[in-house]
Write a structure and sequence with these properties.
- The chain is of the alpha/beta class.
- It is built from 6 helices and 11 strands.
- The strands form 4 sheets. Strands 3-2-1-8-9 form a 5-stranded parallel β-sheet. Strands 4-7 form a two-stranded parallel ribbon.
- Helix 4 packs parallel to helix 6.
- The longest helix is centred in the last third of the chain and has 11 residues.
- The two termini are 28 Å apart.
- 27% of the residues are buried.
């Protein structure tokens, strides 16, 4: 929240895995008055999100799951949380459709150019989504906040965390700063380490 409170001068923020809008609410309450693009694929979350931001014209919901095209994932809702689960029934009626960020029609190139911060919380899909965005959608090395859960990342793709950090280095990112899930600073280091 302290960091988000410094967003006053930014034009736009992209929030991937927006859920019901909890992060978007914190951003708005911090005083940010720019455009918020919020990506959320889960329908129940979308309904709550729309209700929570019905009066804010500078918040746009993008009702999609972002990621590489793949088959065989369904939503698993448990205790109010939604996780994407790989299953063998790729032809399932409930199968999730993924949209590559570059193929999404909800954000124009001009709007991509205005995005100055990305926040991602996508249960392990963060690495691949952020790689696609940085390689294909946004030209500048803008700040990225993302959830890193080693087991989730590695279960999606062998060595995905190493690939992600290597690709971020190739895109001129040089450092990573870590906070735990309670907001406590845990350290900062060079990506070369």
């Amino acid at each position: 929240v302290k960091i988000l409170g410094q967003l006053h001068g930014l034009k736009a923020v992209l929030n991937i895995g927006a859920n019901i809008g909890d992060t978007a609410s914190i951003i708005r309450l911090s005083g940010f008055s720019g455009m918020l693009y919020c990506v959320e694929g889960q329908r129940t979350y979308q309904n709550h999100f729309v209700e929570n931001f019905r009066d804010d014209r500078l918040v746009r919901l993008i009702p999609q799951y972002w990621g590489k095209k793949r088959n065989g994932y369904t939503e698993n809702e448990l205790s109010g949380n939604c996780k994407l689960v790989a299953n063998s029934g790729s032809d399932s009626v409930d199968a999730i459709e993924f949209t590559s960020p570059i193929d999404n029609k909800e954000i124009s190139q001009k709007e991509w150019d205005d995005i100055e911060l990305i926040i991602s919380d996508c249960e392990g899909f963060d690495g691949e989504i952020l790689r696609i965005i940085r390689e294909d959608c946004i030209n500048d090395s803008i700040p990225i906040f993302f959830e890193y859960v080693y087991d989730s990342w590695e279960s999606l793709e062998e060595g995905s965390s190493i690939k992600f950090f290597s690709s971020m280095m190739s895109l001129n990112y040089t450092h990573v700063t870590l906070w735990d899930n309670t907001g406590h600073f845990r350290g900062s280091t060079s990506l070369e380490n």
